[in-house]
Structure formats: C-alpha cells, structure tokens
Design brief:
alpha/beta, 37% helix, 14% strand, globular, disordered C terminus, binds adenosine-5'-diphosphate, binds magnesium ion
Length: 471
C-alpha cells in the first residue's frame, strides 16, 4: 500500500508513464519481486491471474535491457498464446521508452516480423513455435539474451510447450537472469525452475481469490432448453459477460442463439483464425459485443479488468477451472457476478465443487430479478488474452502433445546440465545496469520515452488493453 514504484527503484520516466495509465501504486507481486529483480536475482513468481505479473517482470526487463543488434534481442519473454504475447508487448511499450519491443507468433505472415527482427529489438515477446521457426530460418538468434521470462508457465506446460521452452532457453546466454511466472509452481514447472533458474527467489501471492469473496455467485438449476434464456437474462441484467462453453461447437452454437435473441455476441476459440479472434476480442473490449462466448483454452490469460459477469454455461472441469473462469470478473477489487447454469444431472458435481471452494450459495431456480446490477459501463476494462490455436477447450491435444514430448524434454534436461555451472558464477551483477538503477547502458539513464513517437500507439490503449490488432 504505502510503497511507491519510485521507492522500489523504478526510474522516474517509467513511473510517469505508468501514472499516465492510471497505475499509481505497485500491486503485491510487483512490490515483492521488484527489488530482487533489480538486484539481478532469478525470480519465481506465483500469483493468480490479474495480480499484475506483467509489470512485475516487465519493468525490470525494460530497466535492465541492454542494446540489441540486428536479429539479436537481449531479452526474451515466452508466452503461451498469441493474444497474450501481443498484450504483453503492448503493455511493455507503454513505458518502454526507447527500448524496442517486438513480438512474434504464428498464424500470421512472416514479413513484418522478419523486418522487425532485422531492424532490431531489445525485448522480444514470442510464442515458442514461431520463435523456433524463425530461429531455424536464421531470422533471429537468442545468443545475446540475458534476461528471459517464462510467463504463464503452468499453461505453457499444459499446452505441451515445455520441450520447446527448454530448447529455446538452452540457446540463451548462460548468464541470463530468468523470471518465471505461473499460477502454480509444482510438477513440470518446478522441474523447469530447477533446471533453468539459478537460486531463484520465490515470491508467492496467494490466490485467496478475490473472486470468491468479492463476486456474487449464483447457482441456477435449469433445464437444457432454458439455458440460453437464462444467459440472455444475466447479460441484460449485468452487462458485459464472458460465457464459458466446453467445446468450440458449443460456443459457436450459443453465439448464434444469443445473436438470434438480440444479444451482440462473439465466439472466441481455437478453431477461429487469428484475425477473427483478435477482431472478436477487440469488439468486446470496445463494448460493441456484449457477450464473449469462450472455450477455456481460448480464455486463458484473458483479462478483461472488470467484466460485469461470468457465466458457466457448461460446468467447469474442476474447481480450479471455476476459479480461473470466475476470475474474469470482480478484478481489482470491484464487484462482479458469477452464474453457474446447472442441469439436473450436474447438481451433485456442483455441490462437491462448492464445498471445495467454500461456497455455500443455495442452488436455486433462475432468478434474474434478484441479480445484483452493476452501475457504470462495463466497457473500458481489459487486459490480456491468450487464445490457443489448434486445440480445443478440452485440452486433449495439449495433453497428448505433452506426453508425446516428454522423452525429448528429459533429454533436453540432461543435455543442459552444463548450465549448473552458473551456480558458481559471480551473480550476474557484473553486468552493470542492474542493481536497481535506471541506467540502461548507454541509452541514458532516464529511459525517457523518446519512444513516444515510435508507434507506441497510446491512443489505442486507454485502460483497455486489447490484442493490438493494428500492429
Ligand atoms: P497477470 O499477468 O498477473 O494476470 P496483469 O499483469 O495482466 O496480470 O495485470 C492485470 C491488470 O492489472 C492489467 O490491466 C494491468 O494493467 C493492471 N495493473 C497491473 N499492475 C497494476 C497496478 N500496480 N496498479 C493498477 N493496475 C495495475
Ligand atoms: Mg499475465
């Protein structure tokens, strides 16, 4: 509460840029990690969605970025999805000043990405697949990367990206500083940490899920045929809503049904081309679409800071998914509404899940009249989104991919042991520029946003961070 970004050692120019975006005080995870990050330590951060992890790694990344040569970024952020990658890049650019931020992911043409890499970027935000592809083409090399971030590591693992992540990290500088952020730090993520981080400082911010306490939770018993009408009622009562469906097909169908009932709805799932997903999201962000009908995979990492409500149209797979979905509303301490639509045969599971979550709301008949209504427009409030292509909401492909990859992953692990040597190296402090000062080697200590002109695209941002469709 009391600490300011400046007190954490954040350069003034960055503080000012953050202020301009209404970011005045650091969130908990940011306070927790910043000093260690500036000191050059590896950071392992566990914090729930919406807790501000992007700035927690983004600020140190920008502050410590060293000049890059053509095709040789000096900082790398790995992201599981294109939308998240775009949104990270967009967020970083708001305060990056003259530190150049590039982003690469699949599903779009190579031309602009190749040019950007040729021109040079200090910070490269990338999805693993396209990055490996570009490396193979000789379009980029990671040899100069001395800061690496693995964002949403748990999702990256779920999606089967860890073997690629390992191969990529293996190509970066041994002296690099490595940040890893994840909602959970067990299993594969723990192994990745063990193998690729040097004496990391772990900062955990608990998911004491604000959603659970801040949002109003409703559990409605409905027949299959009543679900669409119930959705319509909630959307009318609450405002902008994310509706979760189990499958792509289900989300397409519901989108159609909502549209027929006069709701402006858009589906967002991995079966749609990138452009279309970006467009749907943007329309939702702009408030032109009232309901975003999403699969779980598509919704990963989306934050819309302040969606008025979340509907579990199909029940979540488990209580964690309930939390994750529900976390789309009631962010940043605001109220929100979460409605579960339960068919008779889903009640038992729902009760079990309620117990796990400590929710004791009664399961009732639909009662739109009794819903809390939110004042104010639900539009200008968003953050980051990943949509995973080529995979459906059930994550089956992800899981298969993952096990299929395991063998490779292990060998990669062993092959890389040399890295352990890093253990005895004098911390990466020698690199200067660290240690909390603003200086970014030769680029002037102020980090002054000369970048104001460099396509920072501020106008597009507002408080709503979209997927940066126009880059
Ligand atoms: P996470 O990656 O942990 O899910 P983000 O980094 O995307 O969360 O941040 C979630 C939202 O909170 C974003 O809209 C971001 O701009 C906003 N935010 C982050 N830090 C702060 C802060 N210190 N003060 C106000 N808003 C913040
Ligand atoms: Mg994030």
């Amino acid at each position: 509460m009391s600490t300011t970004f400046a007190q954490l050692g954040v350069p003034e120019s960055i503080c000012r840029a953050l202020e301009r975006d209404g970011i005045h005080e650091p969130f908990e995870i940011q306070t927790a990690t910043m000093a260690d990050a500036f000191a050059g330590r590896d950071i392992c951060g566990r914090a729930p969605t919406g807790s501000g992890k992007t700035l927690a790694f983004g600020i140190p990344l920008v502050v410590n970025a060293t000049d890059a040569r053509s095709k040789r970024p000096t900082a790398l952020v790995l992201s599981p999805t294109r939308e998240l990658a775009e949104q990270i890049a967009t967020e970083l650019r708001t305060f990056a000043g003259d530190v150049r931020v590039g982003v690469v992911y699949g599903g779009v043409g190579y031309g602009p990405q190749l040019k950007r890499l040729r021109d040079g970027v200090e910070i490269l935000v990338a999805c693993p697949g396209r990055l490996e592809d570009l490396i193979e083409q000789g379009a980029v090399s990671l040899g100069d990367v001395d800061q690496a971030v693995i964002d949403e590591a748990d999702r990256m693992s779920d999606m089967g990206f860890f073997p690629a992540v390992r191969r990529l990290l293996d190509q970066t500088s041994r002296d690099r500083q490595t940040f890893l952020f994840s909602a959970t730090l067990d299993g594969d993520v723990k192994r990745l940490t063990r193998d690729y981080q040097y004496e990391p400082v772990t900062h955990a911010v608990d998911a004491e899920t604000p959603d659970i306490t801040v949002a109003a939770h409703r559990f409605w018993q409905v027949n299959k045929s009543e679900r669409v009408a119930a959705c319509v009622d909630v959307i009318h009562a609450a405002g902008q809503t994310i509706v979760f469906c189990r499958t792509r097909h289900g989300s397409d169908r519901l989108t159609h049904q909502l549209t027929q009932r006069g709701i402006r709805a858009a589906a967002i799932h991995g079966g749609h081309a990138q452009n279309r997903r970006t467009r749907s999201l943007q329309q939702f962000i702009d408030g032109n679409v009232q309901a975003l009908v999403a699969t779980d995979v598509a919704a990963r990492g989306i934050h819309v800071d302040d969606v008025a409500s979340v509907i579990h149209y199909d029940p979540p797979e488990d209580h964690k998914t309930y939390l994750h979905r529900s976390g789309r509303t009631a962010r940043a301490g605001r109220g929100g509404l979460v409605v579960s639509l339960l068919q008779p045969d889903q009640m038992m599971d729902a009760r079990r899940m309620q117990r796990r979550l400590g929710l004791d709301e009664a399961i009732t008949l639909p009662d739109a009249g009794g819903l809390p209504t939110e004042s104010g427009p639900a539009s200008e409030r968003f953050a980051d989104v990943p949509v995973q292509a080529g995979r459906d909401s059930n994550g089956h492909a992800g899981r298969n991919g993952q096990s299929a990859d395991n063998g490779r992953e292990q060998s990669g692990q062993r092959a890389r042991n040399g890295q352990g040597a890093r253990g005895n190296q004098p911390a990466r402090n020698g690199q200067g520029g660290r240690g909390g000062q603003p200086a970014r080697n030769g680029r002037g200590s102020s980090g002054a946003p000369k970048g104001g002109g460099r396509g920072r695209n501020r106008g597009n941002r507002g408080r709503a961070r979209s997927s940066g469709a126009n880059r």
